[in-house]
Amino acid sequence: MPTYLDRYFSTLGAMGPATQATAADGRQVPLAEALAWVNDTARGAHAAGNTVIFVGNGGSAGIAGHMATDFSKVGGVRAITFNDASSLTCLGNDLGYEQVFAHPVAMHGRPGDLLIAISSSGRSANILNAAKAGRQKGCKVLTLSGFAPDNPLRALGDVNFYVPASAYGFVEITHLALLHAVLDSRQGWPTPA
């Protein structure tokens, strides 16, 4: 009889292949094609002197910070996130928490940047506003979401990754794995031990 951990890791292992990728018009895109789009768009942005911008709340903020570092260090791509505590508390106090990412995206985003907006629920107002601000600045937009398939974030990207799960852990780990897959695809698959 499978243990809790057996079931947990079996479910987690199924999340990547179950992830749905859609284009801006809502049509399904093969996951490998969507991952290649992220890789090509991030590299193209860097080559043109642009930046990959990551935004997320809570666990997704951790993913945003982690991936901004890895895209820069491992991927050699110019990448940033707007998770500085001073900035978040200042903008949250002065403009409202729903604007803590939209404001810096509007200030620093440029046509040709890639904005990666991460929200497990796909309903966080500050992430939705950041995606809209990125679009207004001429950024390409990638969204990563989960929970309900009709979440509003899923309709805002040029490419949208949706993880069909309602548990934060499964959604967040899959978001992190998808972004790592973009970086790891450059070097080929790691050799199993």
Structural commentary:
The structure is a single chain. The protein is α/β, with parallel strands linked by helices and about 190 residues long. Helix 2 crosses helix 7 (about 170-185). It has helices spanning about 5-20, 30-45, 60-75, 85-95, 100-110, 125-135, 170-185; strands spanning about 20-25, 30, 50-55, 80, 115-120, 140-145, 160. Strand 5, helix 6 and strand 6 form a beta-alpha-beta unit. It starts with a helix and ends in a 9-residue tail after the last helix. It is built from seven helices and seven strands, in the order αββαβαβααβαββα. It has a seven-stranded mixed beta sheet with strand order 2-1-7-6-5-3-4, sandwiched between helices.
Secondary-structure map:
Blueprint (H helix, E strand, L loop, with lengths): L3 H15 L1 E4 L4 E2 L1 H17 L4 E5 L1 H16 L5 E3 L3 H11 L6 H7 L5 E5 L6 H12 L3 E6 L13 E4 L5 H17 L9
Parallel strand pairs: 3-4, 3-5, 5-6, 6-7
Antiparallel strand pairs: 1-2, 1-7
Helix pairs in contact: 1-7, 2-7, 3-7, 5-6
Which structural class matches the secondary elements?
alpha/beta
- Strand proportion, as a percent range, falls in 15-25%
Low-confidence stretches: 189-193
Measured on Cα atoms, how large is the radius of gyration?
Answer: 16 Å
What is the chain-wise order of helices and strands? HEEHEHEHHEHEEH
Largest sheet: 7 strands, mixed
Average residue-wise pLDDT: 95
What's the shape? globular
The DSSP helix count reads 7
- Terminal residue distance: 27 Å
Number of strands: 7
Q: In percent, how helical is the residue content?
A: 40-55%
How do the strands line up in the largest sheet?
2-1-7-6-5-3-4
